[in-house]
Automatic annotation (TrEMBL):
This is GST C-terminal domain-containing protein. InterPro entries: Glutathione-S-Trfase_C-like (IPR010987), Glutathione-S-Trfase_C_sf (IPR036282), GST_C (IPR004046), GST_C_Tau (IPR045074), Omega/Tau-like (IPR045073). Residues 1-102 form the GST C-terminal domain. Pfam families: GST_C. The lineage of its organism: Eukaryota, Viridiplantae, Streptophyta, Embryophyta, Tracheophyta. It comes from the Eukaryota.
Length: 113
């Protein structure tokens, strides 16, 4: 995902295509399910936390959007369900603090290119 955000234009496009292929797999796995194992959060959902919470913040901070409701509807719905689940939400770090952190990192990386 790093090159999709910080690489040169050619590297970004290639990395975005690779990420899209992997996200298609996840999107297909989530078809007709609220979470990876059905209607309850399981180990795979917890392991995919980086995709649910962190990736969304990184997309917002960098301005590079990889996930849309139109392109990956099942994954998009899962991400929303997971992040807003009361059992998960109370343990997530502050979105505002993480956003500020990543936004400053992307800004400093773009000014050093």
């Amino acid at each position: 995902m790093g090159k999709a955000l910080l690489g040169n234009e050619e590297e970004q496009e290639k990395a975005k295509e690779e990420c899209s292929e992997l996200l298609k797999i996840l999107d297909n796995e989530l078809k007709d399910k609220e979470f990876f194992v059905g209607d309850k959060i399981g180990f795979v959902d917890i392991a995919a936390n980086v995709l649910a919470f962190w990736m969304g913040i990184i997309e917002e901070a960098s301005g590079v959007i990889l996930v849309t409701n139109k392109k990956f509807p099942n994954y998009y719905a899962w991400r929303d369900n997971y992040i807003n689940c009361s059992q998960v939400k109370e343990y997530l770090p502050s979105k505002d603090e993480l956003f500020s952190h990543f936004q400053s990192r992307f800004h400093s990386a773009s000014t050093t290119k």
